[in-house]
Amino acid sequence: MLCGLDIDGVLCDLGPSVAGRIADRFGVSSHPSTWRSYDLRLLRLGVPEDRFSAFLDETFNDPDLYRTAPLCAGVVPALQALANAGWSLVGITARPAHLAGATRAWMARHGLPVGEIHHTAVGTKSAVARRLGVAATIEDNPTEAELLADVCESWLLDRPYNLSAPVVRARRLESWDDAVGRLSQLRLFA
Ligand SMILES: [Mg+2]
């Protein structure tokens, strides 16, 4: 059985690096745990909107952001447990294709048991999931998680920036520990 994993905010924690770049560029201190919107453009940091938007585009297109980013808490033992429970793990990410090299290198450096990595546009992950025949996905983007619920068991991993988003069809996971518990069970009784 295949499980499709989102990368940013699920495996890879870009928060500290992005916060560092915001501080460098705009002189504004902002901790990721206080971010309450999935779309960082909507953060109210008191910086000019157009400059902030251009800065975010530049930041998220920079391979160096991803090379140095840390793992999200709990990822390594959780992925190992899922693999041991019989899941085959694939990446499904909205990172643009030019980041494929940096993404693959980061996975390898951390020794994550993730096979193929599929790059696709925001809002189109469900098409990839359907094509691959994945049984489950784990996301941090509430909109994408709802779309994925059309084609598989769709799980939304709780993050400070997605807690207020209404989720109807996807189901929430509190943590990676919670993910292991629920997905191992799914596998057991499938
Ligand atoms: Mg994500």
Account of the protein in words:
This protein is α/β, with parallel strands linked by helices. It folds into two domains: 2-13 and 71-189, Rossmann fold (3-Layer(aba) Sandwich), CATH 3.40.50.1000; 15-67. The protein is built from eight helices and six strands, in the order E-H-H-H-H-E-H-E-H-E-H-E-E-H. It has a six-stranded parallel β-sheet with strand order 3-2-1-4-5-6, sandwiched between helices. Helix 4 packs parallel to helix 8 (176-189). The structure holds magnesium ion. Magnesium ion binds next to loops.
Sheet bearing the most strands, described?
Answer: 6 strands, parallel
Specify the CATH class of the largest domain. Answer: Alpha Beta
The whole-angstrom Rg is 16 Å
Termini separation: 10 Å
CATH architecture assignment name of the largest domain:
3-Layer(aba) Sandwich
Named CATH topology of the largest domain: Rossmann fold
Write out the distinct hetero groups bound to the structure: magnesium ion
Summarize the SSE layout with pairings:
Elements lengths: L1 E4 L9 H12 L22 H12 L2 H5 L7 H10 L3 E6 L6 H10 L4 E6 L5 H8 L3 E4 L2 H7 L4 E5 L13 E3 L2 H14 L1
Parallel strand pairs: 1-2, 1-4, 2-3, 4-5, 5-6
The chain binds magnesium ion.
